[in-house]
Design goal:
This protein has 372 residues and is α/β, with parallel strands linked by helices. The protein has two domains: 124 residues, no CATH class; 187 residues, TIM Barrel (Alpha-Beta Barrel), CATH 3.20.20. The protein is built from twelve helices and eight strands. Strand 3, helix 8 and strand 4 form a beta-alpha-beta unit. Helix 1 packs across helix 10 and helix 7 packs parallel to helix 8. The N and C termini lie far apart (44 Å). It comes from Pseudomonas fakonensis. InterPro entries: NODB_dom, Polysacc_deacetylase_ArnD. Keywords: Signal.
């Protein structure tokens, strides 16, 4: 066991992250070990779970006004915030239990945690006993998780008036929590791009790697691509869901039903083998009263819980490092990349290279897409 007693210089105040940036990653080079075995994946996983649990615990000390100020909002939907916090705690507890299974091989970050109360107590104090081997990781991880938590709480604070991927609106929706431990699903949105674009390079790369994912296509872009030539070969070996006819919120759009009908009919007609009955709402925004229509179309909402944020200032490597950190934190989930943008493929290449020996698995897209 490499844990040695060391004290941190101090804790960041709760107000330091009051206005978090929209895009945040964590440099994985600050973690002193490669994830080249399942046991070392678990070590890093336990560390990230405890780091996030620490900031989640800290956030509970804020009253309603202080929380609103921290999130940059005038008011917050406190019941939803509390419900999301409770769900996050449950996921952390489940994840930590899974990650403890390898403690016999490597006891780093293995603490006597036998209940949710134990996890909360350990989260509040663990940073004072991390050890010199991990000192360079502790504070950057704390800052990342503070900002990442603010992303989640800001969405919770305005939910369901503004819906997002932070929570489900019905039990028929999927968000990755239904996967098994260490299993991840690759998904891609915003495409397809024109012929010869990053979509082509990415699908070809996935086939060469013998990997598959779900491509949620926009109906208008799909039609443009189909009008220019066949699309079956583009998505060979992959799965295709829909994202609506245009990339716009389907929560307030009066034509949202027609958007889904047109997109669904287009993809089903042109790609009957690759089509899966899933809808990825742009921005995660969908209608709370749309369940009956979705059921009539035999569609399910497919959300995500690991966003690569490859549509902003993060480099491809920083985007991949963000994904890896969240994979360690949640230990399963639906990863979202944007195939029409050039960062997705190099980010995925980095991710696959750095997790090749970690013992994770990639979910079969057809099995996920057709699951009842």
């Amino acid at each position: 066991m490499r844990i040695a007693t060391a004290l941190l210089a101090g804790l960041l105040s709760l107000g330091v992250q009051a206005a978090p940036a929209d895009f945040v990653s964590l440099d994985r080079n600050l973690w002193p070990e490669q994830l080249d075995s399942p046991a070392l994946f678990d070590v890093a996983s336990r560390a990230e779970i405890l780091s996030f649990a620490r900031v989640l615990h800290e956030s509970e000390m804020l009253d309603e006004q202080a929380l609103a100020t921290r999130l940059g909002l005038r008011q917050v939907n406190l019941p939803v915030v509390r419900a999301v916090r409770a769900r996050l705690w449950q996921r952390l507890w489940t994840s930590y239990q899974q990650a403890q299974r390898s403690c016999g091989q490597d006891a780093s970050f293995c603490y006597p945690v036998a209940s949710m109360a134990d996890l909360r107590m350990q989260a509040a104090t663990f940073a004072t006993d991390v050890g010199t081997f991990y000192t360079g990781w502790v504070e950057p991880s704390h800052q990342f998780h503070s900002r990442y938590l603010d992303e989640q709480l800001r969405k919770a604070a305005v939910f369901p008036q503004t819906s997002s991927e932070v929570d489900k609106l019905s039990s028929r929706e999927r968000n990755g929590e239904e996967l098994n431990d260490r299993m991840f699903l690759l998904t891609f949105v915003g495409g397809p791009g024109p012929e010869g674009s990053s979509t082509d390079a990415l699908t070809d790369y996935l086939r060469r790697q013998k990997l598959e994912g779900i491509f949620f296509v926009l109906g208008n872009r799909f039609k443009q691509r189909r009008d220019a030539g066949p699309v079956a070969s583009l998505y060979a070996g992959q799965c295709v869901g829909i994202q609506g006819w245009e990339y716009r919120s389907h929560a307030q759009w009066q034509g949202w039903q027609d958007s889904l009908r047109r997109s669904q009919a287009q993809v089903q007609a042109d790609l009957p083998e690759q089509y899966v009955p899933l809808f990825r709402p742009p921005y995660g925004q969908r209608r709370s009263d749309g369940e009956s229509f979705m059921a009539s179309q035999q569609l399910r909402v497919s959300l995500w819980d690991i966003d690569a944020q490859d549509d902003g200032p993060l480099s491809a490597e920083a985007s991949a490092q963000r994904v890896m950190t969240l994979m360690l934190l949640w230990r399963k989930g639906v990863i979202q990349f944007r195939d029409s943008l050039p960062k997705a493929q190099p980010a995925l290449e980095w991710l696959l290279q750095h997790t090749a020996q970690s013992g994770i698995g990639w979910e079969d897209c057809q099995a996920y897409g057709l699951r009842e």
